Amino acid sequence: MKNLLTAALATSALGLFAQNANVVSAYNYMNDGKLEKAVEYIEPATLDAKTGAVEKTWRYRGDIYRLIALGEDEALKAKFPNAVDLAVESYMKANELDVKGSYKVENVKALGALQGASLNAGNDAFGAKNYDEAIRRYAVAERIAKAFGQADTNAIFNAALAYESKGDGANAIKRYQEALAAGYVKPEVYRYIASLQRKGDDLNGAIASVQEGRSKFPDNKDLILDEMSYLLAADRSEEAEKSVALAIEKDPNNAVLYSVQGSLFDKKASAATDAKDDVAMNQWYDKAEAAYKASIDKDPSYFDAYFNIGVLYNNRAAFEYEKCNAIKSDTEYMKCKTKADDIYLKAVPYFEKAHELDAKDAQTMQQLMKLYAKTNDQAKFAAMKAKLGQ
Questions:
Q1: What torsion, rounded to 10 degrees, do the Cα atoms 343, 344, 347, 348 define?
Q2: Domains, in order of start, for the chain
Q3: Rounded average pLDDT over 4-12
Q4: C-alpha–C-alpha distance, residues 36 and 205, integer Å
């Protein structure tokens, strides 16, 4: 029995010696730059009950795979495509076994290098449009950061970009929101979330996201413009009007903003017209006219402003013509008609300029045909008719 026990102990000792030898051999091959051989010796050591419970074994394993992952031997990297993951796994295990913290600084430093490498690998995959691989690599960078109670906000944000680029809007929104929660608070994050919500027909969600962004960045022009656009799309005119006014305050030379403001005033004028409220109608028409003219002043080549002010004069004249039709007295009727004609004909130079800016716009040509018929300008009437192919 004593001989059997001695033999068993000797066999156990030989096994332990063999695995310790494997750890030493792995270390030596690593130092000699023979990393593939180092892998060959370190892996059995990690599977052994004794050496697999030693911090040094896992630290060496982490070093070997880290050198492969961060090295320049592309053939070797191809043989070990998951070297980064194995290195991270190894250092984390080493930290877990290092109860005294003797090698914590070294392990943390190595993990930091791998975190950066994972982020860069994700960026490379993103650049190659391999979005799934990019997401996987960013997840590794995140996992390393989490192990130390931190958040890799760049990895989270980039993962959101990758999800968006691959067309997964739901996960992109989720990841953008996680980026915000982790401290990556930038105006563009709110804009990206809102844009995806808008594409997903969640218009109210988009407005809420933009407004949340504006609560953090109240003077950000892009967020203000987005808010204005979404409010207009939601037909929330009163809120949109305030947003447009603020946008103009931040960007006073933007011709588009004045034109949008003019259209909002124009809409109020139409509502007043329907309500037969002459005073309110004239007030809002005057405001719309001023806004369109301001747009033209900021950009003399902006087609929409010319076209819209022409339409405004048409609508205003139409209201006057309708009033005229109810007048019985010929004298009063002619006074009313003259006033309506004067308003209507104000549209001529604006539609002509719009036509000059966009000679193919059919609506502009149709309006000009009507105006030339009104002024009995046969030559211009015939020219517009010919352009329309009539």
A1: -120
A2: 185-252 (1.25.40.10), 254-390 (1.25.40.10)
A3: 43
A4: 53
